[in-house]
Amino acid sequence: MHKNDEQALLREADALAAHYLHSLSTRPVYPNAGEIQALSGFDEALPDAPTDAHAMLAQLDTFGSVSTSVSTGPHYLGYVIGGVLPAAAAADRLVSVWDQCASSHATSPIAAKLEAVAGRWVLDILDLPRGSAVGFGTSATACGLSCIAAARRSLLAGQGWDLDADGLVGAPEIKVVISDKAHISLFKLLRVLGFGRKRMLIAPTDEQGRIDPKRLPALDDKTILCLQAGEVNTGAFDPFTPLIAKAKAAGAWVHVDGAFGLWARATKTHHHLTEGIEGADSWTTDGHKWLNTPYDSAMAICKDAGALAQAMNSDADYARAESHAQSNLTMEFSRRARGIPVWAVLKTLGRQGVCEMVERHCGQTQKLAEGIDGKGIKVLNKVVLNQVLCTTTGAEGVADFTTRMQAGGKLWFGTTVWNGAPAFRLSVSNWRTTDADIERAIAVLTDVFTEV
Q: What pLDDT does 317 receive?
């Protein structure tokens, strides 16, 4: 492709993207059945000859744009999904054009520098132990896998076992203690690492999904204790201070799944929920949730930087890198510079901007819960963060009510199960969400229920 054609194609893509963004406030939050059916237009045979790139882009926009879930808009309340901030999207756009292999300083000096700065800033704003390693991975699942792998390797070394040389056959057993309300991604990564579900020790929780320290299974120096900052349904936080104290006394490793809740630590109003969390050994969090970065911007944070670097080391004879290189902190060897959008958000928002955004969402969540509770809807959780867990109280059940709401296209949220009963969950984490959007959501939820 000629350089001028390349630039024209990029300008066309930018124009289509701008049109999509302009329509967010009026676009249905989820495509209708006809729009989904139209996706069959992509079911074509592999072309024998080259296809015009402009025609490809037109097809992608015509059938693709209308078939998106508009999770980047202010009316999407399903899961904890932020909408990418303009600064992060713009930085990611430039980085994509740079087309860097962000493995180490040797492959991309700019990526290595900005991801190192972003890592320091993450530790600063989250007030976690300085000097910790920060790896930017694809997801909290992948980053959690890296942290738990480092934890197991470190605990085995403490038992005199060389995991790198001898593997797991015959190794001392490493136990995992996990909440009975742990996120499925944690079960997934533990399964991938070979921790069978029947072998996990389950820690009972209270009515909000917090581990009860009095009923914590026995810990020792061959144990990984997994805690939560933000239970996925209620938003509740485990009591870190007593739990971590018990773990440290036993010599156990503590890992905290803070996919979205860890950002409460960046606030003044909700910082107390994370009290004692700095005593853990590793943490994971997502950027695409509350930091509103693009996807693939998660973080693996490990207090013992060497433990993570040794567990994830990928040095080869032809490609050796510094121990803190991202290729030695994450699962990926060849990788995109996913830490740069994190840098862009922290650069443009600063400490004050991140604090304001998270606190605003927490306030909006409280307003949402108060506005719908008792109007055919019952709020099931003590709202402490950005999650509202609900059920219906009328004749129509949760599933039918949720389906009706999704079909209306004005809001989107999904169902869940809480203590064996069906429920639905509303999450607020998008930078575009205004107080007016919350008022609109309250009206849509209560009006539709009244109609029913």
A: 57
